[in-house]
Write a structure and sequence with these properties.
CATH superfamily of the largest domain: Histidine kinase-like ATPase, C-terminal domain
Number of strands: 12
Order of helices and strands: HEEHHEEEHHHEHHEEHEEHEE
CATH topology of the largest domain: Heat Shock Protein 90
CATH architecture of the largest domain: 2-Layer Sandwich
Shape: elongated
Length: about 400
Amino acid sequence: MVEENGEKRRDNLLIGILERQKKDLVVRFLKKHEEVEANRSFIDKIMSNLSDLIIVLSADLQIVQASKEFFRVLEIPEENSLSLSDIIGKESLQLLSDKLAAGEFQDLETTLISRSGKPVPVIIKGTTYVTESGRILHMLVASDRRDFYEVMGRMREVQDQLIHSGRLASLGEMAAGIGHELTQPLNTVLLLARNCIKAMDDPLQNQAMIKENLVTIVERVNHSSSIIRSLKGFASKAKEEIIPVRINVIILDVLSFLDAQLLLSDVSVDLELSEKDYMVLGHEVRIEQVLLNLIQNAIQAMAETPKPVLRITTFRHTGVDAESLQPKPYVGISVIDNGEGIAPEVQNKIFDPFYTTREVGSGMGLGLSIVERIVRGFGGHIKMSSMPRDSTTFTVYLPEHTEPKSPE
């Protein structure tokens, strides 16, 4: 009887221990579950507040998890099952797959595709992680670049408007020369027309003279029309594609357009153009704008010079490309005047927007700033050297373009 009671006590004790262990296991499990849920909630809160698009991929590029911003930007319901191929084009998918296979990568620019088919430009960073169990996971962090490209687009529009404004300002400065150029043929037309009216009193006797006068009138009218056409062409804001352009030809066209202004300012021109007609890639109209600004500045700088001389040279120059740091051929264009020069204390400011050495009201100070931006836009650069009361030289360097040789 005593033994049975002892066995019962031991059994009850063992059962009690097992019950306590079971309770401890349940408590520990619940705590662990709470920790996991808390961590998951914490991670979800972080991912929901990130502005970047976070994407976690499996080894076969299925989307395992993604941030709320990812679903919002790509207009996809969160419960959808997706793979990387559903949100990216074939070429970009292959490129991204190659990058992931190679390991961690930075700053890959590509485009994701939203549910409605809209392109979403992004820049992606990626890394690969292998769990303790051997599972491969890829994490992508994509930054939405739509706002950036929109701002850049607006900046380009503003720059185009500034360049156009500069061209219109240049037209105003050329008004005196153009007026002088048109006045001469119009006066000639008026004089010859009056002579023809008088000659009509005896047309047979004056037939040769009437015919000669009419031929001259037609020539003068055609000359005036060509001036007006060139004026309209210069003022137009037509967008051009970047094409190979001949530097010597552009220089001669600009000088021809400024012929009346040069004549009115009593400026003699000394041309030292290279025998080889070098080519560069660019917009013909914008390169004209560069040369026009530099030449007009030179004319104004020589306003008080007794014998103003404008010298323009073209040459080939080997420089260093700013991006690759490798030697690169450039076409150099120097515009040199023997005018008043630029004071040393202001030479480092002349390319700043709205800086001008002219009198108040006579210029906005955008000319050289626009010139420098245009030149940089074509991968070139511009240098200036000046000696006060002696001369100023502006030299533009643009990357040389060579036509590919045709196969023999």
